[in-house]
């Protein structure tokens, strides 16, 4: 295919390029599928008088790459040279919109480890086009943020902090991330815990004393994240739980309706318009929604004040003796260290500096012992957990770990599968020749070692490639997949 591509380039006099700004490539398409350079024409069924479509594509490369230390992904930030004249705070706003993280839970560092502050310009750090940055989060938060991104409610509950002020901040962060990714179950659970979608995420309690000079986007709420991402179901859940979300404004004064209009989320705009200009009916009176929201807001402020006076409670604010983090003066606590690493560094303590509950795992005598606060009864005594029994099945396919250990012994116990080798497929059931067994096992191990896939995974991979040729029939796609699989096996 490389030869064909070069011939097309010389015949049509196409000038291709590949530099820091972008690249210009020649793409060959046949039967709806994009042809790859390492393929042979006959492998994909290209014969004489076939038609190949040639397309010139121009791809713009990102100006910066940001490595997410939690998800291990690279986020591309597009823009020209003007991007480097902006401040770091503007870059963090773009990263927050792409990653779904609030700006107050991470910091940016150059690849050499220099921390980047919001008030500085990107040009102060002498970055080039295509440079890579690193996004680090608070120590002990890595497991919690992974659970928030995947929407796993039980893991989020497991990794929440023990300190009350840090716990409330983590719940607001979790609701913000759930709103961005559309995790409705996690969002409903957090709303039932008393987290408000129209409450600003704010800053970490360690930075409470310097919140006035922090990033402006710390005033964003979960409802704004749902509006930016166009998560209609989450928007409906937030507004059904608290109608004040309709008029909640972000730091620049934009309501969720204005945000959805700017982002072009048509379904969200229609829903918000219908709710904003609707009527709220009572037995003796009907009020427009904007009047009802004003009355509701006034009642909420009054009830909150009365409740504080009655309970004699004060807000959780930083006090003398609490941990304080100031940029450039204190030791950074945002290095993306996990709970287990903090546990070892703190000498086996059950909690880290952020108040997170850590997990103590001991592999003595081949058993795992877990120490956790929830494993104690009401009298403070430790609870003895029953042993874990491993389910043993007679299915010969239980050794296949391609679907993960989770599904290994669940569905195979109820659905009996035929053996891999039987009399119907024409293969011998018992290999009596030991040399044949050795050669077969060594060939399979050699193929898996060099290709990085098992033969079954390789077959699925080839079927996926062949399915890109949508204009071909299913049998033709099967022939292409068989040929590609044969070529990949012969190459090893």
Automatic annotation (TrEMBL):
Tell me the domain of life: Eukaryota
Q: Which CDD domains match?
A: Ubl2_ANKUB1
Q: Tell me the SMART domains matching this sequence.
A: ANK
Which SUPFAM superfamilies did the record assign? Answer: Ankyrin repeat, Ubiquitin-like
Q: What is this protein called?
A: Protein ANKUB1
The protein's organism comes out as: Xenopus tropicalis (Western clawed frog)
Q: What is the lineage of its organism?
A: Eukaryota, Metazoa, Chordata, Craniata, Vertebrata
What gene name is listed for this protein?
A: ankub1
